[in-house]
Amino acid sequence: MKVLIIDDDADIRSIARLSLSRLGGMEVVEAAGGAEGVRKAQNEQPDVILLDMMMPVMDGSATLAALRSQPATAATPVIFLTAKAMRVEVERLRALGAAGVLIKPFDPRTLPGDVRALVESQLNP
Amino acid sequence: MSAHTYDPAIADEAAGAVDVVVQVRREEALLKTGALQKAIFNSANFSSIATDEKGVIQIFNVGAERMLGYTAAEVLNTITPADISDPQEVIARAKALSVELGTPITPGFEALVFKASRGIEDIYELTYIRKDGSRFPAVVSVTALRDAQDAIIGYLLIGTDNTARKRAEEALLQAGALQSAIFNSANFSSIATDEKGVIQIFNVGAERMLGYTAAEVMNQITPADISDPQEVIARAEALSAELATTITPGFEALVFKASRGIEDIYELTYIRKDGSRFPAIVSVTALRDAQDAIIGYLLIGTDNTARKRVEAEQQKLDQRLRDQQFYTRSLIESNIDAIMTTDPAGIITDVNRQMEALTGCTRDELIGAPFKNYFTDPARAEAAIKLVLREKKVTNYELTARARDGKTTVVSYNATTFYDRDRTLQGVFAAARDVTERKHIEQMLQEKNVELENAKFVAEQTVERLKDVERLKQGFLSTVSHELRTPLTSIRGSLGLLASGAVGALSDEVVEVVAIAERNAVRLIALINDILDLERLETGKIELQFGQVSAESVLRRAIESVGPFAREHGITIEASEVSSTIWADADRIVQVLVNLLSNAVKFSPPSGVVTIGVQPGEGWVEFRVTDRGRGVPAAYRRAIFERFRQVETSDAREKGGTGLGLAICKSTIDQHGGTIGVESEEGGGSTFWFRVATTPRPVAPRLGRAILVCGDDAECRRSFEEVITQAGYAVITVPDADAAWAVLQGGDVAVILLESDSALLARVRQEPAFEAIPVILFGSPLVVSPEALSDSLVLFLPERVDSRELLAAIRDGLERGRVAAQARYVLLVEDDLTLLDVMARQLSREGIAVRTATTGKEAIRVAETEPPALMVLDVGLPERDGFDVVDAMRQRPELRDIPVLVYTGRDLTEEQRGRLRLGPTRFLTKSKGSDGDFRRLVVELRRIPLAHGTDTGTRS
User: Fold this and answer.
1) Do B494 and A19 count as a contact with CB atoms less than 8 A apart?
2) Could you tell me if B726 lies within 8 Å of chain A, comparing CB atoms?
3) Cα distance between residue B655 and residue B648, in whole Å
4) Touching check for B542 and chain A: CB below 8 Å?
5) H/E element, B827
6) What is the side-by-side strand order in the sheet with B135-146?
């Protein structure tokens, strides 16, 4: 499984990468911002995109919209990463059409499993 | 012969010698005669003018010289007496004589002596003319001087100056005329009496004044008989005393003085014939004969009535004037202000007592002194006078008066100008009021104002700061979730990776150390989560989503969640079968259960058992989590529900946990309107319990926050839900009326979107508890009743509705609902301010509009202004107690049915309770501890259906 992580925080990208690759055996591609993320998504064609909500310049929603507007990336499952743990927020994000929402801080040990599970459920609703 | 020089003519005459003896005798006789004649001759009172037969003056004596002003030398042998007489009179005399004697008489000397020449005694009046031209009346006696042959050899004219007598005559004439006038006047009573007092004359005036005819009184009575007898007696006594001789009380008293020639005028009261009286002024004169003997008396009297009346009037007026003056003076003196008048120049003309006190000077010292002298700033005082004169009025002009002893008083000077009748400026009338007190108060007020301003400013600042803090906190709350979590993600992540060996094998020690770090990072994260949770719970940021929740399901989820943790600790969880439902936010209840279970597990002894019990009750379900751990000491049983309170400080480290878990539980259960607590014995385990309601209670129709969508088409519900949620509202969807009704009971609904169900619509609109909730009808066909059409809280959606219209309708509905809800309030009537505050805040937190009153009177007033939806009424109140309030409200149709919660410390008899009922009324007794009280209060409140509101236009 190829995963694209879009997050402006390098450390978090590292953690996620280490977790997904070492523990999950996944291939990981990184992007530091929304624009870069969309480009990489088009080029790399990942199986799933982990998308941080709070990013400068182009936030999660905008990035999602951009992804959805490109035919190449329109159908790629997107999992939101958010520090806002409020239920209403979570609901809202779900309503935007995410495959799932993961709340930071995430457990690096369970991250791969959660991602896989969410992708599964997206593909098989 | 005497040595006197005398007229040679006479001397010659006398010297005719015949007989020496005869001559001597003749001489003697002549001498005697001559002496007399000499006396006369030498008298200055007689003018003796002898003339020759032609009238030429031969002798002009001293008297003549004196009377006429000529010396003898000037007239002797020069003129005739006619030349020193009034020529007109001479002519007139000549004419008169001519007529009298029938023979023409020359107007001249002949006229003066003709009669004498004929031997007729002649004495007549004649006006002599003096040398200086002045005149005087004379009486002239003329004798012819004859020789021995009896031939006229001359004439002798002896004259006296008749001036005085003439005057007397004139006076007499006048007097006579006057007397005549008096006598005939009706204004004077003239009563003449004989010497005994018997009335002889009684004039017209007397008749008129006294009412008697003259005939009735003449020769009969004395004036004493028509006088006031007492006065007569009094007069007699007074005269007796005055003259030191006994006077008979009678007529004698009236005329005694006159009889003595003493002028006498006195007041006497006459008595008329008809018995009436009048005051008279009587003037008495004695009438004398030629021998000066008294032959009678004349009493002239005037009626003094008018004058007396005038006098009396005058006295009355004088008295009134004095009274007036006294009154005015009293007013001025009694005035508490210092009053003074000054002339236009500022000199004091009058002062009252207070002015004396103010200045420490006496009235005499003040009057005449300049007004400005008595003030600390004389220029300012003077300016005041000038100002009054210019403006006619000055008010509230501040001056500082200085008394003699130096004491100063701040006064408010108020003055006006005043005038006399002719509008001439008289001066300035002023009052100076001691404003020391006022100034003091003003100053205090000023200071207080400043204080208040400062306090206000400080308060405003504080509010601003608090707002800032709040804003920061808000921002904080939202930022912290990102800012804290972000680095924590990395920390936790790295540690987790390390510990998992995903980045390389690590020695056991290293792994252990890393594990420590990871654990603590996790703990930190949990703490942050809990803090945020609690904060949001308590500030109401978390919107609980109530629903019918199966107790069994929450139990299951909680146990599932805690399962691994329990297994880790080797603790078994046992739960009984349950089948109750509760009205709750499922996730939150799960959270509570998870918390309690975790605690139970943590504190259980190894291989212990944690049991969960669920006990249904009346309207509530109680969950009980029991462990066999060390228990909670009594002192802590309440405290442990507070933040960060753990019984042992070491617990945090050993047992983990953030210390916030129980606080969050309590907050959650509070939000559910439930109760939470712990039963425990130290060393004997603990049972943590909480209760939640099974059904929603009828609650004050809060402006809930959720949009309730009720329709049987699932697709429709979903699409509505989507639109509404996207707009940021909370939404609850239900498929049918029953579910809708259940949700409504939760009290969280702001607007109902109802698919064409007129039955439910009617039910909702008629339910007092939901009256303020607007209903938006959709679907087709729309079956609507006439009431619904005119109901301002019922809105309609068109058949095909787009999201914009839907949201617009919702916004409209929300606004109407807000307006409608505002009309309802709960009136809290309580005179204990602390308690009132607590109640008010609690209710406000529930979203209930509250108004307060601390007295019965105020309660009535507030209720009458706008009827409350419900009243919480204390009985013991100042200014009309609870009974009075209910009585007053019973009089008003709009108030007589409102629900009441009587909340009092008193025990009420049945009769008293009866007097406190309006609409649905419940009674709650205050107990000593007020916390539990208020909880009960709110519970009771929720049981009472609120009264119909006064929404305009919604009800017919």
Assistant:
1) no
2) yes
3) 10
4) yes
5) strand B826-829
6) B57-60, B46-52, B152-161, B135-146, B122-129
Beta strands in chain A (DSSP E): 2-6, 27-31, 48-52, 78-82, 100-103
Q: What is the pLDDT of residue B2?
A: 42
* Integer-rounded Cα radius of gyration of chain A: 13
pTM, full prediction: 0.34
Contacts (Cβ under 8 Å, ≥6 apart) of B125: B137, B138, B139, B140, B162
Strand B294-303 relative to strand B188-194: parallel, antiparallel, unpaired? Answer: antiparallel
What's the structural domain count of chain A? 1
Which residue is listed with tokens 């009827």? B867
Whether chain A has a CB inside 8 Å of the CB on B890: the answer is: no
Is the CB of residue B478 less than 8 Å away from at least one CB of chain A? Answer: yes
Residue B272: phi, psi to the nearest 5?
-70, 175
Which structural domain, as residue segments, surrounds residue A23? 2-123
Give the residue from B874, B778, B792, B776 showing the smallest Cα distance to B831. Answer: B874
Contacts of A46 (CB under 8 A, 6+ apart): A2, A3, A4, A29, A76
Out of A18, A54, A91, name the one closest to residue B482 (CB): A54
Q: Which residues are within 8 A (CB) of B580 and not within 5 positions of it... i.e. 6 or more apart?
A: B550, B551, B552, B614, B616, B621, B694
Sign of the C-alpha dihedral computed for residues A33, A39, A42 and A43 taken in this order: negative
Q: Minimal CA–CA distance to B740: which of B719, B754, B758? A: B754
Select from B691, B793, B794, B702 the least CA-distant residue to B746.
Answer: B702
How far apart (Å, rounded) are the C-alpha atoms in residues B586 and B544? 9
Backbone angles phi, psi at A66, to 5 degrees: -65, -45
Q: Are B871 and B901 in contact (CB under 8 A)?
A: yes
- What is the pLDDT, as a whole number, of residue B364? 92
Low-confidence ranges of chain B (pLDDT < 70): 1-44, 165, 168, 171-179, 181-182, 470-482, 538-543, 643-658, 696-705, 746-748, 768-769, 781-784, 818-824, 845-848, 927-956
Decide if B856 contacts B847 (C-beta within 8 A): no
Q: Which residues of B50-77 are buried (b: 16+ CB within 10 A; e: fewer)?
A: bbbeebbbbbbbebbbebbbbeeeebee
Dig out the tokens for A24 from the structure: 């999950």
- Report how far apart, in Å, the C-alpha atoms of B214 and of each of B270, B279, B285 are: 16, 20, 20
Tokens of B857: 């009177």
Task: Give strand pairing partners of A52.
Answer: A81
> What is the C-alpha separation between B718 and B128, in angstroms, rounded?
159
| Whole-angstrom distance, CA of residue B732 vs CA of residue B742 | 12
Please report, as a single letter, which amino acid is at residue B802.
D
Tokens of B352: 């009252």
- What gap in Å lies between CA B240 and CA B197, rounded to an integer? 19
- Tokens 């009335």 correspond to B199
Distance between CA atoms of residues B89 and B136, nearest Å? 13
Which residue, B105, B168, B164, B100, is CA-closest to B138? Answer: B164
- From B652's Cα to the closest Cα of chain A, the distance in A is 22
Q: What is the DSSP letter of B337?
A: S
CATH code, domain carrying A86 = 3.40.50.2300
Phi and psi at B213, nearest 5°, equal: -85, 160
Average pLDDT over residues A53-77: 88
> Inter-chain contact A104–B529, Cβ cutoff 8 Å?
no
Q: For chain A, say whether B447 makes contact (Cβ under 8 Å).
A: no
Integer angstrom CA distances of residue B111 from B91, B93, B102, B127, B242 = 8, 6, 13, 14, 61
Q: What is the DSSP letter of B869?
A: S
The strand ranges marked E within B681-762 are 686-693, 706-710, 730-734, 749-755
Amino acid present at B406: G
